Amino acid sequence: MTAKLTAAMVVMDGGGDRPVPELGGLTPLQAAKTPNFDRLASQGQSGLMHVISPGVTPGSDTAHLALFGYDPVSTYPGRGPLEALGAGLQSRPGDVAFRANFATMNPDFTVIDRRAGREFTSEEGAALQKALDGLDIDGVKVHFVHTVEHRGALVLEGKGLSEKITDVDPHEDGKKILQAEPLVPEARKTADVVNRLIRLSYERLRGLDVNKARQKRGIAPANVLLLRGPGQHREVATLKERFGIRCAVLAGGALYIGTAKYVGMDHVKVQGQTGTIDTNFDGIADKAIECIEGGYDYVFIHIKATDNASHDHNVKQKILAIERTDKMVGRILDKVRDRVVIAVTADHTTPVTVGEHTCDPVPIVIWAPFLRPDSSKRFTEIDAARGALHTIRGMDVLPTLLGYAGKTEKFGS
Question: What fold, for 6-77+235-404?
Fold first, then answer.
């Protein structure tokens, strides 16, 4: 009988890439120094992964549902509820949740800066949150929380709500905030509440002392709230219910935390874990070791810095993020090598030459002390194409890890 191990997955957000002219036609993974990833590749099994399906460009939210073993077509509730869960808000069936961000606009509702300068102190965020959280609009309760920088999450709680409305966010500076419109007749109430909320946010935020102080410092005021990505919470079977496993997520972004909570994972906080290149890689490794030694059956580790670098077209920083993640994985394996089955992969490809998600499959390597190794020697998009895993779906990765970890029962007699 296979010894019971802990399954672990490390995801470098947007880690897949294409050949980069600046690197002489290499991908960032090929250019990076990754001795730990390469050791996993030479001793384990590699392949390419279509996170959702061939030709489909994954969003970060749907990609993670697939990596957690769920069909995103049938289980995706929209991004809003996942952001809300990750931000610490309760999102229940019937509520409508949104991604939210502070913006700067003119009195004619033309957006000047969709991110209101991006820079926010925790004190500023708390003051802005206080002005909006708890509002009541026609019997609909507003729950709002500021998360990081200009970002937040918002939940509408009330009867007769629907997520089937259009966005108010114009998605570009220099354009006017849009009117929410119902996509189905029963969504009229929700659209009206959202339109009133946007105007009310301007009335309540524009005169706050915190915004006056920001303007004095030459920083854009956060004088309106933009909402997008409406969705309604759905009930799905948790990973505990499906597989009987205890799961932990180590992530710094609300979306990834929320998606993990949605499927029943415990959020294990790491001091200094952020979405930036300066995230606490050593702290993440140490907490992962603690989770593995503490009896978790599955540990999911998310690194955002690779994706940020890709969106910024910053190839040097992407290579740095890859190399720091490689060291983090080495730190984990130094302590618990004989106790884990580990996968290293990405949730989607974000080429630094493009700056956006694309449909290209991503490399994946799976390692365990007893795996039959294939002929791959490095962890790259090119080497992975020759690996024993061939082409695998995102939904199949977690069951594969759990099978190798001895967490699943035999099928049949």
Answer: Alkaline Phosphatase, subunit A (3.40.720)
